[in-house]
Amino acid sequence: MVETFEFTVNTKGFTDIINISDKIFTFLDKSKINNGIALVHTPGSTVAITTTEFEPGTQKDLKSFFQKIIPEQAYYYHNETWHDGNGYAHLRASLLKSNFSFPIINKKPILGTWQQIILIDFDNTSRTRKIYLQIVGD
Q1: DSSP 49-81
Q2: What are the chain's domains?
Q3: Is the pTM of this model over 0.90?
């Protein structure tokens, strides 16, 4: 069996980090699937899905880390093509990817105690991002 859920989040851009765990867990509870695999996916080349401990220090560390390795103000060839100033956002998102999967046992996600599912919008503008949860199992 396969079930698909969809929801949106509004972001601020500029490495906006949003905890989407509760929304995902609500859909897991509503699902008819007890055991299987869940895939969280967001379409877009400047947005990513990953996991971490969602707390203020980690959020600051993530923003600082990405600014150090892929600074917003550096030169990017992408900006020459589209003149949209978000070349850095494409590179940051490509490091993390746009999806994350995890096992489900008895309707519960198998994640670490401090592991939350987060969306990071790297673009240089606010957006409404679609997130898809697809569950495959019994």
Answers
A1: EEEE--SHHHHHHHHHHHHHHS-TTS--HHHHH
A2: 2-137 (2.60.120.460)
A3: yes
